Structure formats: structure tokens, C-alpha cells
Amino acid sequence: MTAGPGTGSGTSAPATPSGHGTVPTEPQHAGRDIPLPSPEHRARGLGTVLGIAVAVIFALLPFVDVDVPVILPGLLSSPGALQVLAIGLVFAGVAMSYDVVFGYTGLLSFGHALFFGVAVYGTNLLMVHAGWGFGVSALAAVLLSATTAALVGAVALRARGIAFAMVTLAFVEAFAIFLITDPLGITGGEDGLALARDGVPDLFRGVLNTRNLYWLALAFAVVTYLVVRQCTASSGGRVWQAVRENEDRVELLGIRPYPVKLLAFVVGGTLAGVGGCVYLLVVRGANPDVAGADFALALLIMVVLGGSGRLWGAALGGLIYGLLTLRLPALSTSGVLDGLPEWLENVVAEPLFVLGTLFVLLVLFVPQGIAGSVERVRAALVRRSSP
Amino acid sequence: MSTFVLIVVTSLGLAGLYFLLAAGLSLIFGLMNVLNLAHGAFFGIGGYAAWLTMDRLEVVSSLGLRFLVAVLVAAVVGLVVGALVERLLIARSYDNHLGQILLTIGLGFALVALLGGVFSYDAQPLVQPAWFGQTTELLGARIPNSRLLILAVAVVLLAALLLFLAKTRHGLVIRAGVENRSMVEALGIDVSRSFTLVFALGGLLAAVGGALGAVYFNGISPALGTTQLIFAFIVVVIGGLGSVTGTALSAVVVALTQQLINFYGAPGLGDIAVVGLLAAVLLLRPQGLLGAVAR
């Protein structure tokens, strides 16, 4: 029901229940995120056009010589600015993959950072210690991410609610401890592990090729968007949303929630793994910061900031988060904050302070996130224009 | 043998810290179903309150007495911060558990970053009474006095908490609320006052833990509490949500497992083994050692 005729690819929008185990789709049971048909079809078509436009604009950014003060270092087309944007785009993609787990299936999992981190480190470890090329290493690492997601999910999903959240948090932290204490002497401890340059294809090597990395990150974000949209619009994807709305009812309808949730976990984890491989190339190294509990919480912030259960919201949240964390420290040296006492200046330029405070205010006053607010405004406008 | 005794007693000191962090978490969770991810920040705030007192309160020349004041200051600060957080933030969304968790996540980030901005991220060494660094001979092992002190404070607070829960009317309401909140509400008792109380108590215990943690870890840094929080979560789940005795027992089990394997195995292996322990408990006994089934 989320996908209508206006979606473009008609294959994934079966209006009639096909085969066994499809969730009945009476409108009166639809959750808050499953919109009513008629105005939404128009909006969907508009959404597709808008989405393509955004992707094209992003793809053309490396050709634009504009100075964006404070937000980006230097000209838009400079390698520094493109790297910041590329990190933001990777975060956007990973946030969308997390939206599968959190936003669509309603699982408060902190394990997502683990699957991302496994791919970042897995790829680099294979390149550094086994001397494999990037392509093979990345493929193996993504498979490893998927396997890890399946195993962790299989254990953690035995618990529900808060206990589930705590267990996933424990797993991700165990991995971070493994990386930092480095008992096997392979991960480089707290300093991390620089990218093995020899295995990287020429296309992505060197500062001059940063724009290729940027396009790679953009491609990852776009592909993730398309895959997740396809998945969540399929009948299986609607069972995810049904589990989020009411797990007991899904069980009562004869569908076991456990494999459904596990599938969401693995799909999201695999996509996060792909993002991890791209991230490794963009930041040219593996650092334990991206694999710990803090990054897991950061993913949650990205998705809630943008609006959970709405893909473009999650993407926007990831992009904003990436830009804020990377660029806020530069605020203290930019002169904007001159005149404040030094300790206050330190605090304001602290990315996590700004994000944390912003997040608290958001949860209190705008719980539906950016995307939710925009949709609410749009719905109000539509109602006013067509009584 | 003496090494073994030393490690066991040191672990018990760490278990004391875990207990102080986990007891509040467990009560808050048991009563309110809130996973307080800002709890590590309470620990950090307590640590810095104690550090500031030790650093600045030069009027009290005896370091031992000054440390006593520092712990009391930390306790009061923790109590106030806990109560304020509950009243100002958590109370706004009682029926939205996800919202409450998200609030505590944002708050945890903001508070730790605030500490980092004000005090810098470098660890601040704590001025300590000389007695803390001296050792006491026990079963052939020379145990640093600070470890024994931490253990003693944790045991006293455990006893006080159990007495409070068992003997006072507020404690009775909290225990009943953990057991069945809707029933307590149906009897006409205002549970929301107990919510503020457990948050304040949790803040107090965590802040005292922070003050003692600054001794145990030879200094305080903003993220110290958050690092310990993960182990406190493991302690809470293994102990059984809402059970204070279970939390104390599980703190000892977790700290012993962690430290013994870290020492006799490889550094860091113990931390990972604790997560394995958690997975095992969850698969075999989801309700924890002593406690109701985790919902």
C-alpha cells in the first residue's frame, strides 16, 4: 500500500495479497506511516522526480567552484570539501540501512555500528595482512558483515524490548574493546589501521581522485536508497512494518516474527557493511571510533533527527550529522564565536554537545523528526487546497 | 597465591563501582522501564564534583577529611542532577519509553561533551590522602587501602539501600511498583513521586561511584562513566532487572570474571568474556540471576 502506480517500477507493488503469509491490508489497520491513497500517489511521483533531481545535483557538485564558508573547508570542488561531503553521504547511506532495522521494523538495535565496523576493519585487515586487493577484500568483508548480523541477531532477538537493546549494545562494545585492546596484535589498537594503499584501485588513489571517492559515496547512498525502498515496499517489507506496529498481532496472523526481524537485521547489516567498505576508502583508514557504542548511538541520532521510517529523512539526518561532527570543531577557530568565554567556546564547538542538546530538544518538541515535520506541513497544505 | 588474592580484592573494589552504577540503573529500569543511557554521565559528574572539591577546598587541610567532604558533595550533586533530569526531561514523556531512551541518549552525549569542554578530555589526576596508596597485608597479599575503602563504601550503601527499600514507606512503594506498577497506581498511590526518588537515588549512587572511581582509576576523564556504563548494563541484565541483591551478586561475578581473565588470559579478553557471559545467561536464563523476566 505504500507503493502505488506512480512509483515507477510496478513489479514491487502487488496490490493483492500474493500467495501465503501476506499481511492483510485493510486501511483501518494501517499505521501512521502508511498513507492514504489519492494525494499520496501524486506525491510519490513528485518524490521520484525530486529524488532524481537531488541525485543529479549531488553528482554535479564536484564541478561547482563555490566557496561555502563554515560548512565546508574551501571551495566546493576542493578535495577537502568533497571528502567531508563524501563522509556525509556514507553516513546518509548507513543511516538509511539502519532505518530498515529501527525505523521500519521497530528494533532498537545498537548492533548496527558493529556490522559497519566489521566491514571497515575486515576490508583493511585483509588488505594489510593478507595482501588481497580492495575488491576481493570488500566482498569478503561484506559477507562477514552479513554473517555477523545473522549470528548476533540470532542471539539478541531472543530477547525483546530493552533487554534486546542492551544485548546488542554489549556486542558492539565487545567488538570495540577487541579493536582497542588488540589481543591479537592486528588492529592497531586505539590508533587504528591506515589503509593499505597498494590494494586500492588507481581510480580511488591520491588526493586528486577525491572526486571519484565522492561519486563512489554518492553511488552507495543512491543504491542503498533504491534497495531499501524496494525492500520496504515489497510484501515482506510490509511485514517488517507490521512487526513494528504490533508484533503480537503478526504472530496471531500466523507469521513468526523472529525470522522476519532477523531478515531485517541481515539486510540492514549487509548494506551497512557495503557502507563500511566505502568509508574505509574515503577516510583512508580504520579507526575504532566507528565501531563503538558511541557510533551506534550516533546512528540512532541520525535516523531520529531526520525522521525514522522515512528514507529521505534518515538520509538527510546522516548527512547533517556528518557535516556537524566534522565541521563544528572548525567553528571555534573561524572567529564566529569570538567574545565568548573560553570554556563556553570549547563547549559550543563540541560536536557532541551541540548534537546531544539538539537531539534532546528534538525528541521533546519535534519527535517526528525533520521528515515528519515536512510531511505534516505538506499534509496540512494539501488539506487546505483541496477541501 | 598472593597475586590471586590481590586480584580478587581489586576485582571486589571494581565490583563495588559496578554495583553503584548498576543499582540505580536496575531500580530505574525495574520501576519505570527506562534504560538510562545518561547514567554514565552521572558517574562522570560525581567524579568531577569530587575532583573539584579535592582540588579547590584547601580550607580543609586534612586530605582524608577533604575526601569525605568530596564524596558528600558528589552525592548531593548526583542527587540533585538525578532529580532534575527526571523532573525536567523524563517526566515529560512517561508513556513513551522510546522517547525516554532517546532523551537519555542525547543527554548523555551532551553532558559528557559539556564535561569535556569545561575540564578538557585529558584525565585529571585526583589528589588523594596518602593512606589510600598504602597497603594492608591480607592473606599474604599487599592490598592498596583504596580498594578496601571502595569495597567498604559499596557494602555500606548496599546495606543502606536494602534497608531503605525494606523498612520505609517510599521503599515499599518502589518495591511494589517494580512488582506491578499498575496495581500500585490502582491503589491510589502517586508512583510518579517514586520515579523522581529512584532517579535521585540512582544519581546519588552513580555520583558516589564516580568519586570512588576517580580513586580507583587514579583520575577522572569525561568518558570514564560511559565506558563503565556498558559493564553496568551487563551487570543489570545478568543480575535481573529491578533486583538490588541480584545486581550486587552479578557485579561481583562480572568483575571477578573480567579481571581474572584479563590477568591470567590476555588484556582485554576478560572484557570480551563478560559479553560472552551475558549471551550465555540470556540464552539459558533470560530473567537473570534473581529477577523477573525481562520485558
From TrEMBL, chain A:
<feature type="transmembrane region" description="Helical">
    <location>
        <begin position="262"/>
        <end position="282"/>
    </location>
</feature>
<dbReference type="InterPro" id="IPR043428">
    <property type="entry name" value="LivM-like"/>
</dbReference>
<feature type="transmembrane region" description="Helical">
    <location>
        <begin position="352"/>
        <end position="374"/>
    </location>
</feature>
<feature type="transmembrane region" description="Helical">
    <location>
        <begin position="212"/>
        <end position="228"/>
    </location>
</feature>
<protein>
    <submittedName>
        <fullName>Branched-chain amino acid ABC transporter permease</fullName>
    </submittedName>
</protein>
<feature type="transmembrane region" description="Helical">
    <location>
        <begin position="70"/>
        <end position="94"/>
    </location>
</feature>
<feature type="transmembrane region" description="Helical">
    <location>
        <begin position="134"/>
        <end position="155"/>
    </location>
</feature>
<dbReference type="InterPro" id="IPR001851">
    <property type="entry name" value="ABC_transp_permease"/>
</dbReference>
<feature type="region of interest" description="Disordered">
    <location>
        <begin position="1"/>
        <end position="37"/>
    </location>
</feature>
<dbReference type="Pfam" id="PF02653">
    <property type="entry name" value="BPD_transp_2"/>
</dbReference>
<feature type="transmembrane region" description="Helical">
    <location>
        <begin position="312"/>
        <end position="332"/>
    </location>
</feature>
<keyword id="KW-0472">Membrane</keyword>
<keyword id="KW-0812">Transmembrane</keyword>
<feature type="transmembrane region" description="Helical">
    <location>
        <begin position="101"/>
        <end position="122"/>
    </location>
</feature>
<keyword id="KW-1133">Transmembrane helix</keyword>
<feature type="compositionally biased region" description="Low complexity">
    <location>
        <begin position="10"/>
        <end position="19"/>
    </location>
</feature>
<feature type="transmembrane region" description="Helical">
    <location>
        <begin position="45"/>
        <end position="64"/>
    </location>
</feature>
<feature type="transmembrane region" description="Helical">
    <location>
        <begin position="288"/>
        <end position="305"/>
    </location>
</feature>
<feature type="transmembrane region" description="Helical">
    <location>
        <begin position="162"/>
        <end position="181"/>
    </location>
</feature>
<keyword id="KW-1003">Cell membrane</keyword>
From TrEMBL, chain B:
<protein>
    <submittedName>
        <fullName>Branched-chain amino acid ABC transporter permease</fullName>
    </submittedName>
</protein>
<keyword id="KW-1003">Cell membrane</keyword>
<dbReference type="InterPro" id="IPR001851">
    <property type="entry name" value="ABC_transp_permease"/>
</dbReference>
<keyword id="KW-0472">Membrane</keyword>
<feature type="transmembrane region" description="Helical">
    <location>
        <begin position="195"/>
        <end position="217"/>
    </location>
</feature>
<keyword id="KW-0029">Amino-acid transport</keyword>
<feature type="transmembrane region" description="Helical">
    <location>
        <begin position="148"/>
        <end position="166"/>
    </location>
</feature>
<keyword id="KW-0812">Transmembrane</keyword>
<feature type="transmembrane region" description="Helical">
    <location>
        <begin position="6"/>
        <end position="27"/>
    </location>
</feature>
<keyword id="KW-0813">Transport</keyword>
<feature type="transmembrane region" description="Helical">
    <location>
        <begin position="229"/>
        <end position="256"/>
    </location>
</feature>
<feature type="transmembrane region" description="Helical">
    <location>
        <begin position="65"/>
        <end position="89"/>
    </location>
</feature>
<feature type="transmembrane region" description="Helical">
    <location>
        <begin position="101"/>
        <end position="121"/>
    </location>
</feature>
<keyword id="KW-1133">Transmembrane helix</keyword>
<feature type="transmembrane region" description="Helical">
    <location>
        <begin position="34"/>
        <end position="53"/>
    </location>
</feature>
<dbReference type="Pfam" id="PF02653">
    <property type="entry name" value="BPD_transp_2"/>
</dbReference>
<comment type="similarity">
    <text>Belongs to the binding-protein-dependent transport system permease family. LivHM subfamily.</text>
</comment>
<dbReference type="InterPro" id="IPR052157">
    <property type="entry name" value="BCAA_transport_permease"/>
</dbReference>
<feature type="transmembrane region" description="Helical">
    <location>
        <begin position="263"/>
        <end position="284"/>
    </location>
</feature>
